[in-house]
Amino acid sequence: MLQIHCPWCGPRAELEFTCGGEGGIARPLDTASLSDAQWGDYVFMRKNPKGVHHEQWRHSSGCGRWFNALRDTVNYRIHATWRIGEPMPVAEGHAGAAARSAA
Ligand SMILES: [Zn+2]
User: How far is ligand 1, taken at its centre, from the CA of residue 40, in Å?
Assistant: First the structure.
C-alpha cells in the first residue's frame, strides 16, 4: 500500500487520502470580465501529463487539510508534498517553482 506524507500528520496509508485533481490553479480575480471560453478553460480544462504532475490532495480521514503533491502518473510515486501557500519544493523529475515562474 502506498504511503502518503501529510505535511501535518506525517506518513499515512493512502486509504486516508482523497485526490482533488490538478493543483496550483488560481481562480481568476475578475471573473466578470472573462469570456465563456476563458471561464470554461478555468473550470474544466486540466492537464493530464504522463510523468510528474502537480496535484492537490486532502487528508480526508485524518486532519482534513488540503495540501499539494507532486505525483508521477506513470508509477504513482509521490515525490513531494507541501502545505498550501508554501513554495513548491524542487523534486526529482520536476523543475518545481522555477519552471512555473519562467512560463
Ligand atoms: Zn493530515
Answer: 32
Distance separating alpha carbons of residues 49 and 66, to the nearest angstrom: 22
Summarised one tens digit per residue, pLDDT across range 67-77 is: 999 999 999 99
Domain spanning 3-24+42-102 has what CATH number?
Answer: 3.30.2270.10
CA of 85 to the centre of ligand 1 (A): 16
Distance (Å) from CA 81 to ligand 1 centroid: 11
- The CA-CA-CA angle for residues 103, 42, 80, to 5°, reads 55
Predicted confidence at residue 43, as pLDDT, reads: 95
Any idea where the domains of the chain sit in the sequence? 3-24+42-102
